[in-house]
Amino acid sequence: MTMRWIEPVEERGGTAILLAGLLVSGLLLQGCMPQANGSIDDEDPAEDAAIPVESVRVRNDDVAAFYSGTTTIEADQQATVVSQITGVVLKIHAEEGQYVEAGQLLARVEPDRYRLEFERSNATLKRLEMEFQRKQELFNKQLVSAEDFERVSAEYEAQKAQVALARLDLRYTEIRAPLSGYVAERMIREGNLVQLHQPVYRITSYDPLLAVLHVPERELSVLHTGLDVTVRLDALPGTLFTGTVTRISPVIDPDTGTFRVTAEVDDPNGIVKPGLFGRVDILYDLREDVPVIPRTAVITEDERNHVFVIGEDNSVSRRAVMLGYERNGVIEVTEGVDAGERVVTAGKGSLSEGVKVQVVGIEPGEGVSRPSGGIGPGT
């Protein structure tokens, strides 16, 4: 007999209460009377015994294999600019954050001393050049000794080198960028006395930017140059960057058991900066249109995997499956089930071979459109 609950209704008078009491008494008496067929309950016992479960249909999708790791973005090229002379900074021409081209003027050092040194060396060179020419004419006429001519010739050549050095020092009073990039740091001010080889600027090139990972040696066989990567940066949430693996070190670090993998990161809008921390996913394999199921459908016992498959009569069968790639709670099934079959995802603990089930609740993944692109990072 099926019991029905009657919600109480408030009435101002006592008539409704009396009628409700009579109705309940009548129902109780009716339930105690034998039915015509001699059975108290007309309902199917098998239906009452069905175990409630949640399920999902096996579907086909693209699955991908990734290696994931953390990275700190690096610049491919950066240079510390040093002063090639000693002198007082006369003028600053580039500030931090400014983009500069290779060869562009960054700062100027007081040139007067070096200009005078160049002019003095050049004057000495002209005097020695005239002396050399005179001695050469006399030597050709055998009027001076070879030793005397060689001495003058050596002095002349040495002075030419001295003039070249003086010209170089004068040129070094203009500190220029060695490469195109951004001024990451300015280390001098106007009026400072800079010393020979003192760092004065740091220039960083953002083209390209690199994501560098240190990958366990077990992954060496599956990674190679040319693989696609995706990069997510903590400082830029919601923005996905792409790139390509460009370099793989063939040397394993004996201390860490890892090797270095370098990927170039595409940044068309110029918003990525060196030093940003993030996560990199390297796609190294893709399988298209293969059966996938939720990980919650899988039962693992004694290193073997099974699922409960619901038949057309709502009875379940326990079936062994072979599993493939897994990511974000979705797993590939390489053997055991096909697309369209229904597998149990919740309520598996009460099931055994052949029992009847009743699917209840909303079945995850059914009736919901899914964006294309398969199973990947963050999907």
Automatic annotation (TrEMBL):
Listed SUPFAM superfamilies: HlyD-like secretion proteins
Gene Ontology annotations for the cellular component aspect, listed alphabetically: efflux pump complex
Domain CusB-like beta-barrel, residue spans: 213-281
UniProt domain YknX-like C-terminal permuted SH3-like: residue ranges: 292-359
Multidrug resistance protein MdtA-like barrel-sandwich hybrid domain location: 78-199
Matches recorded under PROSITE patterns: PROKAR_LIPOPROTEIN
Annotated Pfam families: Beta-barrel_RND_2 (PF25954), BSH_RND (PF25917), HH_MFP_RND (PF25876), YknX_C (PF25989)
Gene Ontology molecular-function annotations: efflux transmembrane transporter activity
Record-annotated Multidrug resistance protein MdtA-like alpha-helical hairpin domain positions: 118-173
Family: Belongs to the membrane fusion protein (MFP) (TC 8.A.1) family.
Name of the protein: Efflux RND transporter periplasmic adaptor subunit
